[in-house]
User: What shape does this take?
Amino acid sequence: MTRLWNEPSAFADEMIDGFVAANGRYVRRVQGGVARSTVSPAGQVAVVIGGGSGHYPAFGGLVGPGLAHGAAMGNLFASPSTQQIQAVAKAAEGGGGVFFSYGNYAGDVLNFDAAQERLRAEGIACETVAVTDDIFSASPAEKHKRRGIAGDLTVFRAAAAAAEAGYDLAEVTRVARLANERTRSFGVAFTGCTLPGAEQPLFSVPEGRMAIGLGIHGEPGIDETDIPTADGLAELLVEKLLEELPDGVDTAQGARVVPVLNGLGSLKYEELFVVYRRVAQLLEQAGIEIVDPHVGEYCTSFDMAGVSLTLFWLDDELAGLWETPVDTPAYRRGSVAPQSLRDAAGDPDALDAGAASEVPPTDDDSHAAAATVVAVVETIAETIDTHVDELGRLDSIAGDGDHGIGMQRGSHAALDAARAAYAAGAGAGTVLERAADGWSDKAGGTSGALWGVILSSVAGALGDTGRPSRAAVATGVAAGRAGVMAYGKAEVGDKTLVDALVPFSATLTAQIEGGARLADAWRVAADATTQAALATADLLPRMGRARTHGQNSVGTPDPGAVSLALIVTAVADLLATTERN
Ligand code: ADP
Ligand code: MG
Assistant: This one.
């Protein structure tokens, strides 16, 4: 249980405020997360890490000399938004380009990739390595699909040590790839975690049993056994990890390894030491040289009772980088030279992005249509409010249970932004564009980024002049469908919202081309969407977080497809009344 909070929805923000207040000699608050408060050498590659909050010391606790230059900090267990990542990267960047690294989760990949594209378009060089250390989350043949867990630390650290040593962006990237290739983790859990304000843990493990293949977001384990002894657990962890040695590692030829035994939150140090005692014996018996063992909390999940073992296989280059000093709020090694603090007065007010009160010019027709856009966004937010628990429940079956709250945060932020833009006199396109930006910024997660793409595509088709035509609406929706598929790379049949969006767009276009009024066309398309969303129950997920727990979700429709169907159906009702008037 998490016992202390104020407003659960404010938890992540208040946590970051307190973390910064307590660690001003390392970090400063910037829009979207934290950046170093110390001066970094000009031209140094900036290592920017990030992910959802709720994993301390990942990610903000790992910012400081010898480690990250900035951390994008999303909401609890939700990827930071594209805007947050972009803002943190700009605050951290010092002329040498940006190197991004994070655990490989669908929402993080979408948002970090989008941020990288935006930064490149601004002329800032960027490279990325997503960490894929969790050997239990995909087979060796599909290594690139593996999740990132506690092995984040070794990859971040190797990349950051390279940056500190003056390597350029390409070389930092090479080192990070090498470190990722040589980092393997495996974990187990005994209980799930309970988020602030939640009544139930995100998952539970039966008394006396142990879930194998834990995730760090409260995803259920992939397999289950009786709880072994501490020694039995050490044997399981070491045995599994030694079964899959990285290329170039030969234990008969003097392999060196940094073991990281990571507690997820509720396991105590004493228990970890009892387990580590046996881990060390087993590694030594296998003829492996142990370097700088780590036993403690490096990536947590609130009060989850779980443990993972990471083995980081050194070569000469990685061993040299590993020895360099590091000093961050939560992770220290060696002694770092004294640092000077940035001149706070010289920092732009990074937190206040400035309420965008200025809007592009428009005409009466488009401003009138903007009133309908605001009403549509209102309807979306109300629909999500009504179904928030149901959407969360659907997402907890194979995902991480946050689809309801993520959609709620997104749609309400969209509504605030849409109302503000309308009040400032904006046209239909701008009102919807601001809504899209607000949604993707505040929702986090995969669906937040995708809803940003959908709304922004429709906004582009509506424009700010004249009364938008039916054909423009259909074109905008089609562009949204294409954008979602290009961005998320899911196809029809992968059990995602694409399965609902494709028939919605196709039916809407066909109806409008056949001469139907918008409200009628939308109704037929909404009905097709509902059918398609329900039909996803029969599918196995092949994309997103749910992929790892695919089998669990058969029989349950995809949450993202269901929320899309609920939204377009509610909008059909709204259009029916507005067109009649
Ligand atoms: P997260 O998966 O980051 O927790 P949400 O829970 O808000 O985000 O949204 C989950 C939904 O996102 C899924 O039900 C699915 O419809 C959709 N989704 C996940 N990955 C993709 C993808 N690659 N393309 C399209 N939709 C996706
Ligand atoms: Mg989710």
Summary: The chain has a mean pLDDT of 93. Residues 181-195+203-326 form a domain with the Hypothetical Protein Tm841; Chain: A;domain 3 fold (CATH 3.30.1180.20). The pocket of magnesium ion (ligand 2) is lined by residues 395, 399-400, 402-403, 445, 545 (CB under 6 Å).
